[in-house]
Specification:
The chain is mainly alpha-helical. The chain has one domain. The protein starts with 19 loop residues before the first helix and ends with a helix.
């Protein structure tokens, strides 16, 4: 539930922003690692599904869907070209989940993780553009070029890897957390209200990492709920929907905790915080759904 960007200017209040060089290095390493793992998962997929003879046929529709998804993202300037490319790879994997784990295809594209991915994209797109002019005046708005590859890796990489590993509940929890965190940050910045640091519960300026607002919290809950409800088009999810929703909400609060502590100390940047938060949500949902 980080209200502000990864690098802020509140050092006068005891916060120590991460250096630009360290932030870039962390983001590049994260992007490279996620991209490499996704490519490895895609390459190994025919082996994992035990249907090598049908690999080209089974990949045709996911490939087409991914290209269309990437084209739409590029057309609305929701991501840079690097972000679009990585997003298309992630879409390719999610369009086939949960088939990757057991070799049994979903009955339709609607039964895959694609609807949840579209929900995340729609929530992020609307939230980012909600009150953009006001956020720009306050220096809190996202760039008009859209999200970079590192942001795509941080927010969606975990979902793709859990899908490739066959952990569908964890995949959806990661997607729901990403949607919730974006809605919380963007809508919280626009509506405003008292911003309080999660760890000390003291009032802090808008844009402080780890700051939470009432509006942002409500937006986070709504974003997670919408994503899980859309994902529940796949009946496999029904018995675990409440667990996944709770895990996503827990991931958002974990995001705020990291923002208020290690990010405000300048140890890690916003991309690593987002990645860690989606990973936390995915692991929690996977563990709880097996109880």
């Amino acid at each position: 539930m980080t209200i502000g960007p990864g690098i802020h200017k509140n050092s006068s209040r005891g916060y120590r922003p991460i250096s630009p060089a360290r932030n870039r290095l962390q983001s590049r390493l994260l992007t490279g690692a996620i991209t490499g793992l996704i490519l490895l998962a895609i390459t190994a997929q025919p082996i994992a599904t035990h249907r090598p003879g049908q690999s080209l046929q089974s990949a045709a529709i996911p490939l087409l869907v991914s290209l269309v998804f990437g084209a739409v993202v590029w057309a609305v300037r929701a991501a840079t070209i690097g972000g679009v490319a990585l997003g298309a790879l992630i879409c390719f994997l999610l369009t086939q989940a949960p088939r990757i784990s057991n070799g049994a295809p979903a009955s339709s594209i609607g039964q895959s993780a694609l609807p949840a991915l579209i929900a995340v994209f729609a929530i992020s797109f609307v939230s980012t553009r909600f009150g953009r002019s006001r956020k720009e005046k306050r220096g809190l708005a996202e760039g008009r070029r859209g999200r970079h590859a590192s942001q795509i890796a941080a927010n969606l990489g975990v979902a793709a890897l859990f899908a490739a590993a066959g952990y569908y509940q964890g995949c959806v929890a990661a997607l729901a957390e990403a949607a919730a965190d974006t809605a919380s940050s963007e809508i919280g910045q626009t509506i405003g209200g008292s911003v309080r640091l999660l760890t000390a519960w003291k009032t802090v300026p808008a844009g402080t990492n780890g700051g939470v607002t009432v509006a942002g919290t409500i937006a986070a809950i709504a974003g997670a709920a919408i994503t899980v409800l859309v994902a529940a088009l796949n009946r496999v999810l029904w018995p675990h929907a409440a667990t996944i929703f709770a895990s996503a909400c827990a991931g958002v609060f974990f995001d705020s905790l990291l923002g208020a502590t290690v990010e405000n100390r300048g140890w890690i940047g916003n991309d690593l915080v987002n990645f860690a938060s989606t990973l936390f949500a995915a692991l929690l949902a996977t563990l709880l759904s097996r109880q």
